[in-house]
Design a protein that fits this description.
The complex is a heterodimer of chains A (161) and B (553). Chain A contains seven helices and eight strands. In chain A, strands 2-1-8-7-6-5-4-3 form an eight-stranded mixed β-sheet. Chain A is globular, with a radius of gyration of 16 Å. Chain A has 161 residues and is α/β, with parallel strands linked by helices. In chain A, 41% of the residues are buried. In chain A, strand 1 and strand 2 form a beta hairpin. With 553 residues, chain B is an alpha+beta fold. Chain B has four domains: 104 residues, Sulfite Reductase Hemoprotein, domain 2 (Alpha-Beta Complex), CATH 3.90.480; 159 residues, Sulfite Reductase Hemoprotein, domain 1 (2-Layer Sandwich); 98 residues, Sulfite Reductase Hemoprotein, domain 2; 135 residues, Sulfite Reductase Hemoprotein, domain 1 (2-Layer Sandwich). In chain B, strands 16, 17, 18, 19, 20 and 21 form a six-stranded mixed β-sheet that branches. In chain B, strands 1-2-5-4-13 form a five-stranded antiparallel β-sheet. A five-stranded antiparallel β-sheet of chain B has the order 3-14-15-12-11. The mean pLDDT of chain B is 96. Classes of the chains: A alpha/beta (161), B alpha+beta (553). At the A-B interface, helix 4, helix 5 and helix 7 of A face helix 1, helix 2, helix 5, helix 6 and helix 9 of B.
């Protein structure tokens, strides 16, 4: 499957598992509830481990276990649900998560730039999206009024350097 | 006023490029209807009954003459020659085509204007006291802080998809003319016991279906923490606000359901975490505050202006005298006045202004008011810095353009939403009700005798006309396809803010003026010397009004 990662289109092999899918070898992403329920088993998994969390789920509980995950998938159930933008910033800026932060679900061209600023670095786009066109979403703005997970110096401070 | 630097200009230019691309992809079928809707809303574009509507931001109501001329040009070129000022101090055009919007935005950008976040579930235009900087009761001019918040809130990557819209108002004076108590966040400049100026922060006010007054969230916030604290409020709201029901998604519902104590605890926890752990410091630097302030405290006043004898000029010219009395207010600088330009002439929709009128006002601003003007939340305009010696000229020019109706603060200075004539949400016409009221109450002496009266009119429960906080509020409702009006009494949006009480069953739309006449008759009969309508209502309660209104039915 092709995804966007660090502003490039790349082939990706992570497997997104549901609550009842059998565990398999390779790189897998499991729902956070499954991590909580099957922690021991997942810790001995052969391959990389990722976890999926949606807006409304307990980010602070997840934050205690960050060292176990090479990837965190933020699930945008509707693109207009903005909770995961805050989750992304908190994971990066407060909980110092440095692994891959991935947007999944209703992920569309015109939301990529803000997602990236909040710390998301890979994007599994919705099926109907044109990945090549979506790369143009990045870098439209040369400077920003706010800092975010990109650690941009806000304009208000750049003015006084 | 604030002048963009290259950073500010780049942001709005790049925003135009972005939206042009989005609109082209939409028109080519590459973006779905629902997905484009959210993008266009955040660029000010609604789709209304007749056509798209474009809402242009007028940050804290401040405009230059040059900007107003551009709005006149846009009205002529892309619209039907007029625009409409709103209660958020913004300007709406009702008839542009969608295809032309990127071009309009590009033209606006040439005069440092935009339509960013004037709609949608995001942080909206920041409103302020229309007398900011010229009123004697001011602790500090609120506009530098409005501008700082405008910049911070523009294109904020974390808060573009909030549960619902989010509105700030900032007041710097003792008299709250910015309606801070009915905003999601209201900010008041205050002085603490150490004589430092900072902010009192209110949260959770709002109108709409569930009118609620804001509660105090923080008694005193030092200036340097403004942005970190707002970021904490917004983050708590973004994560915790309801998203399952759009009618319960405003921050006021979250604050009510958690209780102010719990909400404060959550905001404080988030705020302290930001202060302690944010990798890039969010402190608002003194140098930036001073830089922005310098754009607002640079007015030159003539100390000799006070030598002019306005009283002798007024003598023998009763129309001019009336206008001076009702449409101008004292300025902190002796010899100057702030001049209201009434957009409430009897024969026009409240808040509407033609391109020709805009050009007239722009010229007056250039000649007599330091090339600036303001929009007010009552949908009028204001020339803030007029020498008394120039008032006669200003009055004559305004009068020639039907802009000198001497009714500011009176019954016919109504706040009125566009209603069913334009708005796809409305249940009832509102402009025709304003017209009905104007036709009934034509005797200016009677209107003056009624004194200060805030009449506010909304064509549906979304309350864009702020009916809940009118001394008299009128709300359009739909009853089986017929238009009726519900009447509330006793509301206020000022320091003594209150939500009006429904007086009884609604009246048919064609009987609104009759009902008003009865209500006002009770006031006139019952008032004490010098008492305004609101005070009489608060003293005697609603029963007398109710008895009169529903007698013989």
């Amino acid at each position: 499957m092709q995804i966007i990662k660090n502003r490039s289109i790349v082939e990706d092999n992570w497997q997104l598992l549901g609550a009842d899918d059998p565990l398999q070898n390779g790189d897998i992403i499991v729902p956070f509830s499954r991590w909580q329920a099957e922690r021991e088993q997942l810790l001995s998994h052969q391959g990389k481990l990722g976890v999926q969390i949606s807006g409304g789920e307990d980010l602070k509980a997840l934050a205690k276990d960050l060292q176990h995950f090479q990837l965190i998938a933020l699930s945008f159930e509707r693109f207009a649900d903005g909770r995961c933008y805050s989750y992304a910033r908190l994971l990066r800026e407060r909980f110092s998560y440095t692994g891959e932060l991935r947007a999944i679900g209703d992920v569309l061209h015109d939301q990529l730039a803000y997602m990236e600023r909040c710390g998301i670095d890979s994007f599994v786009m919705r099926d109907d999206q044109n990945l090549a066109a979506a790369l143009h979403a990045f870098g439209v703005f040369s400077d920003h009024y706010q800092t975010a997970a990109d650690l941009a110096q806000p304009i208000q401070r750049q003015r006084h350097v | 006023m604030y002048i963009y630097d290259q950073y500010d200009q780049n942001v709005i230019d790049q925003r135009v490029t972005q939206f042009r691309d989005q609109t082209q992809r939409y028109l080519a079928g590459d973006i779905g209807e629902e997905e484009y809707k959210i993008l266009r809303l955040q660029n000010g574009v609604y789709v209304q009954i007749h056509a798209p509507m474009l809402r242009i931001a007028v940050p804290y109501g401040l405009l230059s003459a040059k900007q107003l001329r551009m709005l006149a040009h846009i009205a002529r070129t892309y619209d039907k020659g007029y625009g409409h000022f709103t209660t958020r101090q913004n300007l709406q055009f009702n008839w542009p085509t969608l295809e032309s919007v990127p071009d309009i935005l590009a033209e606006l950008a040439t005069v440092q204007m935009h339509a960013i976040q004037t709609s949608g579930n995001c942080m909206r235009n920041i409103t302020a006291d229309h007398l900011a900087g010229v009123t004697a009761d001011e602790i500090e001019d609120p506009r530098p802080y409005c501008e700082i918040i405008r910049q911070w809130s523009s294109l904020h990557p974390e808060f573009a998809y909030l549960p619902r819209k989010f509105k700030f108002a900032v007041s710097g004076a003792k008299h709250d003319r910015a309606a801070t108590q009915i905003h999601d966040v209201g900010i008041q400049l205050v002085r603490n016991e150490k004589d430092e100026v900072g902010f009192k922060v209110l949260v959770g006010g709002g109108l709409g279906r569930t009118p609620i007054l804001a509660q105090e969230l923080k008694e005193f916030l030092p200036k340097k923490h403004l942005l970190s604290y707002l970021e904490a409020i917004l983050r708590v709201y973004n994560m915790e606000g309801r998203r399952d029901n759009m009618y319960k998604a405003r921050i006021k519902i979250l604050v009510q359901s958690l209780g102010i104590e719990k909400f404060r605890e959550m905001v404080n926890a988030e705020w302290h975490s930001i202060l302690e752990t944010a990798p890039v410091d969010l402190t608002l630097d003194e140098a930036e505050i001073e830089r922005v302030k310098a754009f607002f405290n640079n007015k030159q006043y003539d100390a000799n202006a006070s030598h002019f004898n306005l009283q002798s000029e007024i003598k023998g010219n009763p129309s001019f005298a009336r206008w001076v009395r009702h449409n101008t207010v004292m300025h902190k600088q002796a010899g100057y006045r702030a001049v209201f330009i009434s957009l409430k002439a009897p024969n026009i929709a409240p808040g509407d202004i033609t391109a020709e009128q805009m050009e007239c006002v722009a010229e007056l601003a250039e000649r007599y008011s330091q090339s600036e003007l303001r929009s007010t939340h009552d949908q009028n305009l204001l020339l803030a810095d007029v020498e008394e010696a120039n008032l006669l000229n200003v009055w004559q020019a305004l009068d020639a353009q039907n802009l000198a109706t001497a009714n500011i603060g009176s019954l016919t200075d109504m706040i009125c939403c566009p209603g069913l004539d334009f708005c796809s949400l409305a249940n009832a016409q509102s402009i025709s009700v304003a017209k009905q009221i104007n036709e009934r109450f034509q005797k200016i002496d009677y209107i003056y005798d009624l004194g200060e009266l805030r009449l506010k009119l909304s064509g549906c429960m979304n309350a864009c006309g702020h009916h809940h906080v009118g001394h008299i509020g009128l709300l359009g409702v739909d009853k089986k396809g017929e238009q009726w009006y519900q009447i509330t009494l006793g509301g206020s949006a000022e320091n003594d803010a209150s939500i009006g009480q429904v007086i009884g069953r609604s009246v048919p739309i064609e009987q609104v003026a009759d009902a008003l006449e009865k209500i006002l008759a009770v006031y006139v009969a019952q008032r004490y010397e010098g008492e305004i309508f609101l005070e009489t209502y608060r003293r005697i309660g609603k029963q007398a009004f109710k008895d009169k209104l529903y007698a013989n039915n």
